[in-house]
């Protein structure tokens, strides 16, 4: 049975699927809709994503899609490790602008559920890291947004990575929270 743990912010969850190890290796149900529904997570995922980052310090984020293409994301790591970061960007939320981080890794075999209304990003902690995630809405370039990972108004405590961060141009030039299109 999958274990579901509430983190500190909104409905952000850590999900720990069972791993059955034996002399051959292991087997794991990495997603079981019925078990998650019993645990209170009733979502319909419509797209699976997979990203590979060659180096430690690859920082992707902070990303979200605006309604009507907002996405819940169920994120896991099959190789390597990330520090995963979520930021509450719902203006009406008592925790608006607050962030939370969780290490997600192949070793921990954990997942993070990022609800709609949260910006999401991660930095790879080791080279050759593969991140797989399910989303509840299709990609829409027009609704896709990035928020500055180092906005002091948010103040995410990103880890220090020797060699620094590797970012996309889109993420390097992303707007600050004060100038971004957010959720109501
Ligand atoms: C996100 C996405 C990108 N793309 C394309 C657009 C672009 O040409 C290429 C790379 O896109 P990006 O630079 O946005 O990829 P990336 O920076 O890895 O974006 C991802 O970051 C993490 C943190 C998330 O939370 C994801 O939702 C997503 O935003 O892939 C799709 O075709 N479908 C998708 O769903």
Describe the structure.
Pathway: Carbohydrate biosynthesis; dTDP-L-rhamnose biosynthesis. The record marks 139 as: Participates in a stacking interaction with the thymidine ring of dTDP-4-oxo-6-deoxyglucose. With 184 residues, the chain is mainly beta. It has one domain: Sandwich (Jelly Rolls). It has helices at 33-38, 169-172, and strands at 3-6, 13-16, 19-22, 25-28, 47-53, 59-65, 73-79, 81-88, 99-105, 111-114, 118-124, 129-135, 144-146. The chain has a six-stranded antiparallel sheet with strand order 1-2-10-7-12-5, with no helix packed on it. A five-stranded antiparallel sheet has the order 9-8-11-6-13, with no helix packed on it. A two-stranded antiparallel ribbon has the order 3-4. The radius of gyration is 16 Å and the shape is globular. The structure holds dtdp-4-keto-L-rhamnose (TDO).
Structural class: mainly beta
| Ligand catalogue | dtdp-4-keto-L-rhamnose
CATH fold-level assignment: Jelly Rolls
Count of DSSP strands:
13
Distance between the termini: 36 Å
The total tally of domains equals 1
Q: Low-confidence parts lasting 5 or more residues at pLDDT below 50?
A: none
Query: What's the level 1 CATH class?
Result: Mainly Beta
Average pLDDT, all residues: 97
CATH architecture: Sandwich
User: Major sheet: order of its strands?
Assistant: 1-2-10-7-12-5
Helix/strand order, N-terminal first: EEEEHEEEEEEEEEH
Rounded to an integer in angstroms, the radius of gyration calculated over CA atoms is 16 Å
Based on Cα principal axes, name the global outline: globular
In CATH, the homologous superfamily goes by the name Jelly Rolls
Residues in helix, % = under 10%
Q: Biggest β-sheet: count, sense, barrel? A: 6 strands, antiparallel
- The total count of helices amounts to 2
**Beta fraction of the residues?**
35-45%
Catalytic activity: dTDP-4-dehydro-6-deoxy-alpha-D-glucose = dTDP-4-dehydro-beta-L-rhamnose
Function: Catalyzes the epimerization of the C3' and C5'positions of dTDP-6-deoxy-D-xylo-4-hexulose, forming dTDP-6-deoxy-L-lyxo-4-hexulose.
Protein name: dTDP-4-dehydrorhamnose 3,5-epimerase
EC number: 5.1.3.13
């Amino acid at each position: 049975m999958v274990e579901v743990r509430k983190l500190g912010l909104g409905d952000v969850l850590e999900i720990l699927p069972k791993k059955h190890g034996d002399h051959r290796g292991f087997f794991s149900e990495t997603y079981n809709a019925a078990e998650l529904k019993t645990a209170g997570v009733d979502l319909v995922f419509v797209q699976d994503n997979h990203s590979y980052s060659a180096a430690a310090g690859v920082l992707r984020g902070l990303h979200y899609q605006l309604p009507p293409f907002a996405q819940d994301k169920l994120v896991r790591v099959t190789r390597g490790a990330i520090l995963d970061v979520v930021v509450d960007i719902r203006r009406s939320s008592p925790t608006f602008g607050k962030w939370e981080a969780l290490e997600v890794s192949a070793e921990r075999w954990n997942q993070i559920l990022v609800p709609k209304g949260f910006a999401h990003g991660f930095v790879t902690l080791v080279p050759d890291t593969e991140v797989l995630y399910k989303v509840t809405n299709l990609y829409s370039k027009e609704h896709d947004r990035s928020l500055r990972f180092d906005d002091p108004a948010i103040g995410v405590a990103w880890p220090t990575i020797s060699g620094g961060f590797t970012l996309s141009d889109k993420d390097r030039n992303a707007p600050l929270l004060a100038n971004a299109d957010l959720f109501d």
